[in-house]
Amino acid sequence: MLFYKKVRSGEASVVSGISKTRVYFINHFINPIFEKAEKMNISLMTIEIDRRGPNGLICKDNIRTDIAVTFLIRVNPTTEDVKLVASMVGCERACEINTLETLFSAKLSEALKTVGIRMDFEELFSNRESFIEDVIKVVGHDLNGYSLENVNVDYLEHTPLQDLDEENMQDSEGIRKIKEIIEENSN
């Protein structure tokens, strides 16, 4: 007796049983006595990183930057990667936001800091494409079965002066730099 399993767009079917694990991206049959089929969401999911105030990004010129970035991530739609993710976190949890945040938030946040410290605030503000490209390079595309598809900067401004700590060496240097820029632009 065979059961027909439908696989929708944006899904994979992971079949396990007495033989090796198989992955299907199209409709297929299983023998329910010997096999179990689980669906895995392989569509795009978003992780948002929002760094503001004292947690803002520090630029090369020590200007602290409030930034919100959206990362588009998915399970890479290959047999090997679907199997890897299924064994690592399970089919059901593969695209839960909490799972993705646990797996990737630290790495993504670190990539933002790594690239941000290489650029002055004005360079970052006026050249977001370069910033995004560099973040993608730092993160990499292969993330243990997941892939980074795109990065979007949703918000970018220097952190307001009242949110900066004058006792912090980087913030005090950033405050000085912001005041210089304001003075130059007012003349």
Detailed description of the structure:
With 187 residues, the chain is α+β, with helices and mostly antiparallel strands. It has 2 domains: 3-41, no CATH class; 45-186, Band 7 domain (Tetrahydropterin Synthase, Chain A, 2-Layer Sandwich). Helix content is 35%, strand content 32%. It contains 5 helices and 10 strands. Helix 2 (97-116) crosses helix 4 (128-139). The longest helix is centred in the middle third of the chain and has 20 residues, at 97-116. It is rod-shaped and about 85 Å long. The relative contact order is 0.17.
Concise overview:
The chain is of the alpha+beta class. It is built from five helices and ten strands; from the N terminus they run ββββββββααααββα. α2 crosses α4.
Descriptive key words:
187 residues; 5 helices; 2 domains; 5-stranded antiparallel beta sheet; Tetrahydropterin Synthase, Chain A; alpha+beta; 3-stranded antiparallel beta sheet
Describe how the helices and strands are arranged.
Blueprint: E1 3-5, E2 11-17, E3 22-24, E4 28-30, E5 35-41, E6 45-51, E7 57-58, E8 64-75, H1 79-88, H2 97-116, H3 121-126, H4 128-139, E9 142-143, E10 146-158, H5 169-186
Antiparallel strand pairs: 1-4, 2-3, 2-5, 6-8, 7-8, 8-10, 9-10
Helix pairs in contact: 2-4
- SSE order, one letter for each helix or strand: EEEEEEEEHHHHEEH
Assembly state: single chain
Q: Report the biggest beta sheet as strand number plus sense, adding barrel if it closes.
A: 5 strands, antiparallel
Percentage of residues in DSSP E strands: 25-35%
- Name the CATH architecture of the largest domain: 2-Layer Sandwich
List low-confidence stretches: none
